[in-house]
């Protein structure tokens, strides 16, 4: 997206001339002919840079400059036909990045504009280096636990490097948020962050998704397409669920990582890019190597800076911090009021195992906000949660009947207390002839969930508390069973 520049100049001929100076640079420009128009354009146009004349018909340009918030204001170049040393000093003190006296030559004008835009980028980069986890938050990652502080420290230490980061963790622990934090903490923060889920793309299309293709390279390739590698040039390429990638494609990825060069599908021309790699998986990568599903040389090439994200049930009171942040975020999305959680809610959240991690917590909170209008969250609003040890068995005591005064130990019935009678009842109802393979029962249940969600697999996965990649992988395995 090109930089946006607002030209504030009351003389139309000069304003148009300054605009013509900037045409070769490819920036987007807008003109304001007085102070009132300038104030409106600052809010509506949101420029990156303002070229501001001091003498305007309805106000002094320096008054506009002094009204800007230094934390969010664009860069400002002040123009005047009656320059004095005192005026220049005042403009710089008020936050102007430069000061130009009329008349202005085209080359000098363009150089000054270019320098101001570079200064803006530099300020943003410096700002991105500043750590933001004093209050239990580091970019979009939330949590004050020692486990998460260790994660923040690794990200901070690795931020200035181009070394590959390899993130592991259970589904729903926030691996993409971690990858974004790596990007935002680095000098590449102002460049693209491109995320690609290797499990959500069909095997025959993933090479095209990563490297792009030329028109006619395969059936359906009706135009040239730049892949994720090209889009991420100068920035960060995040490959999620990397262990799902086909082994044959892994060799091409290895060469790309080693050389920075790749070929689009259907092309013999090499393209070179500058990309930082961040990868993630919810599997054990070494086990995948041992089983022959993941190349050992690729593993060691990528496994430079490992980050292991802890599951939510090992992060102590982080669950309360995350829940509060999610309540605030989702309440805005759903148009609901939120004032806080009762102690009963906090106790229930702390006592539950969260097998689906932060993703499950987010779904639970959205359920509460959608189904209840109250601004203060009570324990009676929490839906029944699946048991942490056996997700197919719901919690025996439905949480909806719990009041804030009930202790967590009273809210959840122990699985061992309920298991015996349930098993004995099933034993009397079933004979050996009724027993089916477990995968077949699972297949039927998942297919019913997909049908109930109108074939929306991500939605079905959210309701089943699994990642979409898990369902795609199971569908693929069922298809292979049918073929064999």
Automatic annotation (TrEMBL):
The modification 4-aspartylphosphate is found at residue 53. Gene3D superfamilies: 1.10.8.60, 3.40.50.2300, Homeodomain-like, P-loop containing nucleotide triphosphate hydrolases. Residues 141-370 form the Sigma-54 factor interaction domain. It comes from the Bacteria. The keyword Cytoplasm does not apply. InterPro entries: AAA+_ATPase, AAA_lid_NorR, CheY-like_superfamily, Homeodomain-like_sf, HTH_Fis, P-loop_NTPase, Sig_transdc_resp-reg_receiver, Sigma_54_int. Pfam families: AAA_lid_14 (PF25601), HTH_8 (PF02954), Response_reg (PF00072), Sigma54_activat (PF00158). Keywords: ATP-binding, DNA-binding, Nucleotide-binding, Phosphoprotein, Transcription, Transcription regulation. Residues 4-117 form the Response regulatory domain. SMART domains: AAA, REC. The keyword Chloroplast does not apply. PANTHER family: PTS-DEPENDENT DIHYDROXYACETONE KINASE OPERON REGULATORY PROTEIN-RELATED (PTHR32071:SF117), TRANSCRIPTIONAL REGULATORY PROTEIN (PTHR32071). This is Sigma-54 dependent transcriptional regulator.
């Amino acid at each position: 997206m090109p930089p946006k520049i607002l030209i504030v100049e009351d003389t139309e001929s000069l304003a148009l001339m300054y605009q013509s100076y900037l045409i070769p640079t490819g920036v987007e420009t807008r003109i304001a002919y007085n102070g009132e128009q300038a104030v409106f354009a600052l809010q509506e146009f949101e420029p990156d840079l303002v070229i501001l004349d001091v003498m305007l018909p309805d106000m002094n340009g320096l008054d506009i400059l002094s009204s800007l918030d230094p934390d969010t204001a664009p860069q400002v170049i002040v123009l005047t036909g009656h320059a004095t040393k005192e005026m220049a000093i005042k403009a710089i003190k008020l936050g102007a990045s430069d000061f130009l006296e009329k008349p202005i030559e085209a080359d000098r004008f363009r150089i000054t504009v270019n320098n101001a835009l570079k200064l803006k980028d530099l300020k943003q980069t410096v700002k991105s280096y500043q750590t933001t986890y004093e209050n239990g938050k580091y970019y979009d990652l939330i949590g004050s636990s020692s486990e998460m502080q260790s994660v923040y420290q690794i990200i901070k230490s690795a931020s200035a490097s181009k070394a590959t980061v390899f993130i592991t963790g259970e589904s729903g622990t926030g691996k993409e948020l971690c990858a974004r934090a790596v990007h935002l903490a680095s000098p590449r923060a102002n460049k693209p962050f491109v995320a690609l889920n290797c499990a959500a793309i069909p095997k025959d299309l993933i090479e095209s998704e990563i490297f792009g293709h030329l028109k006619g390279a395969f059936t359906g390739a009706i135009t040239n397409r730049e892949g994720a590698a090209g889009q991420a040039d100068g920035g960060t390429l995040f490959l999620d669920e990397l262990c799902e990638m086909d082994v044959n494609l892994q060799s091409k990825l290895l060469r790309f990582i080693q050389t920075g060069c790749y070929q689009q599908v259907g092309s013999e021309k090499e393209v070179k890019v500058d990309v930082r790699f961040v990868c993630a998986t919810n599997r054990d990568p070494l086990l995948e190597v041992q089983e022959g599903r993941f190349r050992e040389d690729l593993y060691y090439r990528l496994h430079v800076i490992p980050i292991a994200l802890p599951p939510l049930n090992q992060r102590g009171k982080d669950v309360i911090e995350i829940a509060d942040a999610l309540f605030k975020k989702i309440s805005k999305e759903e148009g609901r009021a939120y004032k806080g959680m009762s102690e009963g809610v906090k106790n229930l959240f702390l006592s539950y195992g969260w097998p689906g991690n932060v993703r499950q917590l987010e779904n639970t909170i959205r359920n509460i906000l959608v189904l209840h209008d109250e601004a203060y969250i009570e324990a009676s609003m929490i839906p029944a949660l699946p048991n942490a040890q056996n997700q197919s068995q719901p919690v025996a005591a439905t949480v909806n009947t719990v009041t804030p005064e009930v202790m967590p130990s009273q809210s959840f019935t122990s699985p061992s207390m309920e298991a015996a009678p349930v098993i004995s009842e099933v034993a009397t109802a079933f004979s050996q002839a009724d027993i089916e393979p477990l995968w077949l029962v699972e297949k039927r249940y998942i297919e019913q969930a997909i049908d109930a969600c109108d074939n929306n697999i991500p939605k079905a996965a959210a309701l089943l508390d699994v990642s979409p990649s898990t369902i795609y992988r199971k569908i693929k395995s069922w298809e292979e069973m049918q073929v064999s």
